[in-house]
Amino acid sequence: MHQMTLAEIARGLADKKFSSEELTKVLLARISQLDPQLNSFISLTEELALEQAKAADARRANGESGALLGAPIAHKDLFCTQGIRTSCGSKMLDNFKAPYDATVVAKLAAAGAVTLGKTNMDEFAMGSANESSWYGAVKNPWNLEHVPGGSSGGSAAAVAARLLPAATATDTGGSIRQPAAFTNLTGLKPTYGRVSRWGMIAYASSLDQGGPLARTAEDCAIMLQGMAGFDQNDSTSIDEPVPDYSASLNESLQGLRIGVPKEYFSAGLDPRIAELIQNSIKELQKLGAVIKEISLPNMQHAIPAYYVIAPAEASSNLSRFDGVRFGHRCENPENLIDLYKRSRGEGFGPEVQRRIMVGAYALSAGYYDAYYLKAQKIRRLVKYDFMTAFNEVDIILGPTTPNPAWKLGAKNSDPVAAYLEDVYTITANLAGLPGLSMPAGFVDGLPVGVQLLAPYFQEGRLLNVAHQYQLNTDWHTRTPTGF
Ligand code: GLN
Fold this sequence. Notes:
alpha/beta, eleven-stranded mixed sheet, globular, 11 strands, about 475 residues
């Protein structure tokens, strides 16, 4: 039962092969049996899950239908869930029970999805390995000595290990696509503004975007359908109609123009990954796609620009965690300054403190022009590169990551080494574009992802290409041994 995709679950529920309650019980038992090896959950919500599953079964019995009605999922632990701990992977929010549901959580619940729990993540979504979580590292089900990627590592490990078919995640610089690549999943980062950020705890507000992690493009389409849409509570949400993502999955790829940036195949890329990417290109050519070499000349400046802008926004966003209103408060503060200092010093882990300091520095008078303003100019150039490329091609294809998942602890002493691994993913966030990672093969038994980028609001095109690829390849069907 645990091997079923969301699409298969929807058919099984519609055909009355099993109930949502039965499936939910099976998956909850699987989580309690297997998750101790992975640490992919911060909180389990068994009671809520069983309640929601029974309600979904009752709705089906009353003639309702829908791909998410009775489908078990989990939420990355930065989506606010009413009355349930929403920790953001931080000691700072270990005691925080959100007073309301994030829009994404409310929308998926209304569609009938069943919440099994809240998944582990890098603290405040800062990281690429899920090792900065206050709740401990998450292990990669493909090799328990390796990281699952981050920051949505819990959602990725849980879905990859077949503990559940899909989960929500967020992507500020790659946190949906990179863990998808590291765990053999399909992950979609939508256009900035496509999915509401209301109730999604902010890391870098101009870059953050929620989206799905699942095994297939078909399932990502189902999840995105439930998550996307205008929300007046989010001032950056865009009032653009939501297309039927499942309806366009089967369009032909004949004549599709795929751009492959020459900068993607530079020295930093593992040659074994380069070969798998070439294989995926050949596969898409067989389906009728036409390949064109393109250039993204400003790509080399994207990492430094991102690692100024994201910490700058984070330093501002995280100033609200001051020990006064909610979150961790130190014992016996001597005065207000002592309260701030010790509450924040105790509540935030080292990576979060590093970013707050970098961000505050970059924004400070005298340095603003040299760092923040410069980074914003680079951001504009990165966007222009894409606009120019999309005049000639329909999608852009390349690797999701330069290397496969590294060993736990391997980059802990060198944060910049981890930042450099984000080279292929962060440009889409700087430009606000949609991006998808899908399974493309294995290197040393570890999964490799191929990334597709599309123009604004062309999530349907990404899902269509990925679905056609998945109809003709079987990488996405491989299951990690032991799960
Ligand atoms: N690895 C990147 C960072 O640490 C991206 C994280 C994310 O997308 N949330 O900022």
